[in-house]
Fold this sequence. Notes:
By secondary structure, the protein is an all-alpha fold. The chain has 2 domains: 2-48; 50-97. It is 77% helix and 0% strand. Helix 2 (11-18) crosses helix 3. The model has no long low-confidence stretch (mean pLDDT 79).
Amino acid sequence: MYEMYLDGESYEKIGKKFRLSRERVRQILKKRSSEDEYEQIRNRILNKRVNTWQVKEIAALILNGYSCREIAGILGCSIDCVKRISSKYKFQELRKVS
């Protein structure tokens, strides 16, 4: 599971492979690592998946009223990735980025 997660797979994809819910996958990954390790893994994956142009694209699409699901489909990234970016930046900050 860790290898898949480190390779950027979503909890949902991992869960399908092991016939588990995405929440159970998250729980297993979190339980098997310390809080600091888990946070480092999440940050590394976020940085690996998203670069500056994607943040700008996501910000622009959010401001134009697209949903997280639509944005993920357009940019070819996970919905979780889009949600993390949109929750990380407040609406005013998104305006500055775009």
